[in-house]
Design goal:
Shape: elongated
CATH topology of the largest domain: Outer Surface Protein A, domain 3
Oligomer: single chain
Number of helices: 3
Radius of gyration: 21 Å
Helix content: 10-25%
Number of strands: 13
Largest sheet: 4 strands, antiparallel
CATH class of the largest domain: Alpha Beta
CATH architecture of the largest domain: Alpha-Beta Complex
Distance between the termini: 57 Å
Strand content: 35-45%
Strand order of the largest sheet: 11-12-7-13
Order of helices and strands: HEEEEEEHEEEEEEHE
Structural class: alpha+beta
């Protein structure tokens, strides 16, 4: 049995939840999200508590209930607060500029890279080497950050590339003769 699924989720006053057959709609101060619940999971909403339970006829139902609870919990957090991911560019000539919803990345290639952000993800470029992504959908924000990092991941010798703010790049010593 899943320990995560057994914990109920407390719903704050500024978050509105609606259950309709196998869908859950969550609305908060920053927007609204919806999620399709697995048919192996039963969701109950009573007195500002959301509880998840696995159906007994399927042996992996508690696994689905734990996953569903984690997803819904992050959705509630996202509509109440926002998710943020900060990327830092390090390298000579590495810079970024933002035009509407398109990031122009200069990463040492012979050309600039135009990256269009998905709907629901906002970007702020505080400086030429810092990108702050934000949004209410955790999966979208973190996937957009991973896609940007994939253009030039940090290399271990000089540390050049795009890295997360809280990431530590393990540096290697250069080869000696």
């Amino acid at each position: 049995m899943s320990r995560i699924a057994k914990k109920p989720i407390f719903i704050p006053d500024n978050v509105y939840i609606k259950l309709k057959s196998n869908k859950i709609f969550i609305k908060g101060t920053y927007g609204s999200l919806e999620h399709i619940i697995s048919k192996f999971v039963t969701v109950k909403y009573e007195k500002n508590l959301l509880t998840f339970c696995g159906n007994s006829n399927y042996y992996r139902s508690w696994m689905h209930a734990g996953t569903c609870r984690s997803l819904v919990n992050s959705m509630i957090y996202g509509v109440q607060n926002k998710f943020f991911k900060t990327l830092l560019l390090s390298g000579v000539g590495y810079r970024v500029s933002l035009n509407k919803n398109i990031l122009s990345l200069y990463l040492g290639f012979s050309h600039k890279i135009e990256h269009c952000l998905p709907d629901g993800v906002d970007a702020v470029c505080d400086s030429l080497t810092k990108i702050v992504l934000s949004g209410i959908n955790k999966q979208l924000v973190f996937q957009a950050a991973a896609n940007l990092r994939a253009y030039r991941s940090p290399e271990p010798y000089k540390g050049k590339g795009i890295c997360y703010k809280d990431e530590t790049v393990i540096r290697k010593e250069t080869k000696k003769k």
